[in-house]
């Protein structure tokens, strides 16, 4: 069977498989059938607001319930899905499942959905996402679209028009992993993101690094002058929350508040929160 080799590297060779090409074909077949068999599922990670730390949203993070290898993370299959032109079917399948899960959530909880760079380069893909949302009956104003800086750069004008399609439907836009890519300030302003998500690499060095704190402070000032909200990723420790809150960051996400979890666990969490 397949075997894990350190962080995220998977060996796909199996008995009788002679070449890397065959292994690759096997992976492709597996992913195609996984999508059909419902093995690709949404996990949910809480996003909490400060200072009360109530859950205000859930980020949808794809997982592959692999029959032999257990729960696989996106690092193992999203790129392949992109190469195979399966990323849009995958996103649509997630949206369908999210719609079902959201029916039992409190009405004011929103979801964040990650969109690949490639999906921003094709207006038809944006339309199909919106169609899926309308079909399954999720209120679009409960949806935030997350995209990375790099996704804007390939074809800026196209990205701009695709984003305006989402916006017209009432969805909000978040710039994911901020601080790791190359977005120009002009783009930031022009595309009118509702939110910046500070990459977890900045938070990771807190509280020790004064430099990281200065960067977060600068990002915070930038965001507020553009009228954008800020969410901090990757919060793992109590000392980090205190520093981040002091900077005026309005919400956060990280293992401290909750790891990505399957829908049943998310439901249980809401029941506990509502009981408080
Ligand atoms: P992302 O959108 O930046 O998502 C946050 C990632 O950080 C998630 O990894 C999450 O599990 C992880 N994380 C959250 N809090 C902490 C923390 O406190 N400490 C640490 N060490 N990690 C934390 P995950 O689930 O492996 O997802 C990785 C990336 O895969 C995502 O990064 C996103 O870019 C991509 N992705 C996930 N689902 C989808 C999807 O449905 N479509 C697309 N296109 N991309 C997706
Ligand atoms: Mg994200
Ligand atoms: Mg992120
Ligand atoms: Mg990230």
Which class of secondary structure composition applies to the elements?
alpha/beta
The fraction of residues in strands falls at: 15-25%
* Dominant shape: globular
Q: Give the low-pLDDT segments.
A: 1-7
The helix content is 40-55%
Question: What's the story with the biggest beta sheet?
Answer: 8 strands, mixed, barrel
Q: Order of SSEs, N→C?
A: EEHEEEHHEHEHHEHEHHEHEH
How many E strands?
Answer: 11
**Count, helices:** 11
What's the gyration radius in Å?
Answer: 19 Å
Ligand roster: ligand C2E, magnesium ion
Across the major sheet, the strand order is: 3-4-6-7-8-9-10-11
Mean pLDDT: 90
> In angstroms, what separates the terminal alpha carbons?
47 Å
Protein model, in words:
The structure is a single chain. The chain is α/β, with parallel strands linked by helices. 44% of the residues lie in helices and 21% in strands. It has helices at residues 20-37, 78-83, 87-102, 123-136, 149-153, 156-168, 185-191, 200-204, 210-225, 238-246, 263-275; strands at residues 3-5, 9-11, 40-49, 55-66, 70-72, 110-114, 143-148, 172-178, 195-198, 229-232, 251-252. Strands 3-4-6-7-8-9-10-11 form an eight-stranded mixed β-barrel, surrounded by six helices. A two-stranded antiparallel sheet has the order 1-2. Strand 10 (229-232), helix 10 (238-246) and strand 11 form a beta-alpha-beta unit. Helix 3 (87-102) packs parallel to helix 4 (123-136) and helix 4 packs parallel to helix 6. The protein is globular, with a radius of gyration of 19 Å. The N and C termini lie far apart (47 Å). The model is unreliable at 1-7 (pLDDT under 50). The structure holds ligand C2E and magnesium ion (3 copies). The site of ligand C2E has 24 residues, from strand 4, helix 3 and strand 8. Residues 45, 61-62, 73-75, 78, 87, 91, 94, 114-116, 146, 176-177, 200, 234-236, 253-255, 260 line the site of ligand C2E. It comes from Jiella mangrovi. Residues 24-274 form the EAL domain. This is EAL domain-containing protein.
